[in-house]
Specification:
heterodimer, A: alpha/beta, Spore Coat Polysaccharide Biosynthesis Protein SpsA, Chain A, about 15% strand, B: alpha+beta, 8-stranded mixed sheet, about 25% helix
């Protein structure tokens, strides 16, 4: 690490003699923390307090960006009350709910840090911020969290998720580390790369692999802030699996093309067979069964092919529309009223 | 000398108008009152010299309308005043730099097409910037860059012009004289109590013009008069040495939590201002928190620069700005009317009979507002005469 040792803070000190800049161990790096929130009024304050305590202790320069993904409760108001007490917090409110990955993307689009930590208030432990940043500083573009254990869930989900990860790795050739979460640290370089991807179907977990820059796993124990974590239903999980597959690979399309080609070959063979039969064998009565089997097999594959094509055509349509990913309702920044010493200057008497 | 007692009438006041605050507006109005109306005027300034505070500590921009795509009226006013100001004060105008406005993609309140249309509507010259300039921006974050016509003023030269005008008009200027309070004498004249290095002094005038910008309410409150609702911000503008690509050029990103980097003629540096990081804190006069003396806030603020924040954000849009070297920061109080938070407009506050008859309070946001104020003043005088 080249220790440029923060030229700018030093210059700042020289210019304003009153400034007191405490020396922190990571004084030369600027850390941004991004957290998407959605109807998190019950936990957001505790989360904020913990994160603020950690970043204040560890860093001289930091910012905390909360992206409110269209909350309908008073999450935004609760965050707003922090803006008056703590410095370097920003609240970005999206105009409606766009989904967690887009909310995180909106945060990544606006952060200024040299290193960016993304975390979910529901389950990610703020005390690990310093550690993931430190790892990220040592080289990898992304340090991604792996939860030490999956929360208890049904057998179908367990088997399903295994199958999903296997399929991704073996069939699609996309290395999606099992049990990876959104708790991640990004270098500035990788954030710049990721913010260039404007896909509407966003799965930041796979973008990390896509942009390269090297990744490093980081196993941690999630710390739930709720008794019952919000989890996906089976339907949502299946939908997500299909979307992620389609978004990340055209390989199913290739498989379908190969399948279609193979089946057309089979058709040609069948035609040749029928013609030969017709030419050389008289008195054909059997064949009804063959026809039936042949027909239904063909139809089955045809529908599989159609279904796959539909998925991709649908995605194509979505991306071609080229709409903005999200709309920002407002951005609010910390506006801390001056510290206590200013209180003395309040004029109560009017001479 | 102090005209106390029942005999004092407005005729017996020492001068016609006492102007409190020797900023650009105070000086400009003194000259106007003297030249157009032949008034006897005295100008009070607490600092050692004129034009030292907000008239100096700002981005030195002479607005030409581009800045206000969300307030058509303000933009049109700028367009009208721009040629006048650049003509009347041409000696202090600095126009030897190129000026570009860029429109951001995300988080921007205008789009490039909208901005262009707006400029065409108000008649502000605009065209797409040359490729060499566009190349300085990250296309992923910046939709379009335009070449525009905007100039800066040299605050030190502006002061010289103003001093010359004051001298020509033989206006009495009292420096190191802080107006403490105003009271109405029985005859109707206004008496201003001042603090000078020699002690307390009093002066009477038929009218008082309060042009103290951020300290408008200080004079009102100390005179037992109701304050005006104003919003104050403690602001920081870093002065930077810019890399070669930016030298001789000014850039402004529209219109949201963005930045502007402009030449600052008096120091030969650039000022960097950022919508998000330039205000360090803000407060409202008349709110439950009571009242703070802005100068005391400024004096006691812990001046930890936000430059590390600014430069990181700015370099995302214009990577070459990473090469900026921080030199110093200008700290000042910026005062605006609460109204402009909503629509970004910069109206002029001109309130007559502010608690006392003939006590006028005045607050302008931009240097060229001087013409609006003079126009309003003349119109009001005419109605008064009629």
């Amino acid at each position: 690490m080249s220790e440029s040792s923060g030229q700018t803070p030093a210059a700042g000190r020289a210019a304003s003699p009153e400034a007191t800049i405490p020396s922190k161990r990571s004084s030369d790096c600027f850390v941004s923390v991004v957290a998407p929130v959605h109807n998190d009024a019950d936990i957001v304050e505790a989360f904020l307090r913990e994160v603020i305590a950690v970043v204040k202790r560890e860093y001289e320069n930091y910012e905390l960006v909360l992206v409110d993904d269209g909350s309908t409760d008073d999450t935004a108001a609760r965050v707003a009350s922090f803006l008056e007490q703590e410095r370097c917090i920003r609240l970005i409110r999206l105009s409606r709910r766009f989904g967690q990955d887009i909310a995180i993307s909106a945060g990544l689009d606006t952060v200024i840090g040299d290193f960016v930590v993304v975390m979910l208030p529901e389950s990610d432990p703020p005390e690990l911020i310093a550690e993931v940043v430190e790892r990220c500083r040592r080289g990898p573009g992304i340090v991604y969290g792996i939860r030490a254990h999956r929360p208890s869930e049904s057998l179908v989900m367990k088997v399903g998720s295994r199958l999903f990860y296997w399929y991704f790795r073996r069939v699609l050739g996309v290395d999606l580390p099992p049990n990876s979460t959104d708790f991640r640290a990004y270098s500035r370089q990788s954030v710049n790369a990721i913010t260039r991807i404007k896909d509407h179907l966003r799965y930041l977990r796979t973008f990390g692999t896509y942009v390269g820059f090297g990744g490093e796993p980081f196993v941690y124990q999630p710390r739930p802030r709720r008794a019952r974590l919000r989890s996906r239903t089976l339907g949502e999980a299946i939908g997500l699996a299909i979307n992620m597959t389609v978004a990340n690979s055209t390989r199913p399309l290739r498989i379908v093309s190969v399948l279609g080609l193979a089946l057309s070959g089979l058709c040609v063979l069948h035609i040749v067979y029928v013609l030969l039969l017709h030419a050389f064998v008289r008195d054909i009565v059997e064949g009804w069964a063959t026809q039936q089997v042949y027909g239904s097999v063909m139809f089955m594959f045809m529908f599989v092919i159609l279904a796959t094509l539909c998925e991709y055509v649908g995605r194509l349509l979505g991306e071609v529309k080229d709409r903005p990913l999200y709309f920002v309702l407002e951005e609010r920044t910390s506006s801390v009223l001056l510290v206590d010493e200013q209180r003395k200057n309040v004029v109560t008497e009017t001479d | 000398m102090p005209t106390s007692g029942s005999a004092a009438t407005s005729d017996r006041a020492e001068v016609d108008t006492i102007i409190v605050g020797g900023g650009f507006f105070g000086c400009g109005l003194a000259v106007h009152l003297r030249r157009s109306l032949g008034q006897r005027v005295v100008l009070l300034e607490m600092e050692e010299d004129l034009l030292q505070r907000a008239s100096y500590a700002n981005q030195a921009r002479v607005h030409n309308g581009y800045h206000y795509p969300r307030s058509l009226l303000t933009a049109v006013r700028c367009r009208v005043d721009f040629p006048r100001f650049t003509h009347d004060y041409r000696e202090c105008i600095v126009d030897d730099f190129e000026k570009y406005y860029a429109v951001g993609r995300d988080f921007s309140k205008v789009t490039a097409a909208q901005f262009r249309l707006f400029c065409e509507r108000v008649g502000a010259p605009i065209q797409v910037a040359p490729a060499a300039i566009r190349k300085l921006f990250d296309p992923a974050l910046v939709e379009e860059v335009f070449t525009v016509r905007e100039v800066a003023f040299d605050a030190v030269k502006l002061k010289e012009i103003v001093l010359r005008q004051l001298a020509e008009c033989r206006i009495e200027v009292r420096l190191r004289t802080e107006a403490k309070c105003v009271r109405r004498l029985e005859g109707g004249a206004l008496e201003v109590t001042c603090r000078t290095p020699e002690g307390e002094d009093r002066i009477t005038g038929a009218a008082v013009l309060n042009c103290t910008y951020s300290r408008l309410n200080k004079l009102l409150i100390d005179s037992d008069l109701p304050p005006i609702r104003l919003k104050h911000e403690l602001t920081e503008m870093p002065l930077v040495e810019v890399p070669d690509e930016v030298r001789g050029r000014g850039f402004t990103m529209m219109c949201g939590p963005f930045f502007s980097i402009m030449p600052f003629p008096p120091r030969g540096l650039h000022t960097l201002s950022h919508v998000r990081y330039t205000p360090h804190c803000e407060w409202m006069d008349g709110a439950a928190a009571g009242w703070r003396d802005p100068y005391a806030v400024l004096r006691r603020a812990v001046r930890t620069t936000s430059f590390p924040h600014m430069i990181r954000d700015v370099a995302r849009y214009m990577p070459c700005l990473k090469g900026c070297t921080y030199v110093d920061s200008i700290w000042e109080i910026k005062t605006v009317l609460p109204k402009s938070e909503v629509d970004d407009s910069r109206p002029v506050l001109y309130r007559r009979d502010c608690g006392l008859p003939n006590l006028t309070c005045l607050l302008g946001g931009k240097i060229d507002n001087i013409y609006d104020i003079v126009a309003v003043m003349s119109a009001m005088d005419e109605t008064r005469r009629a």
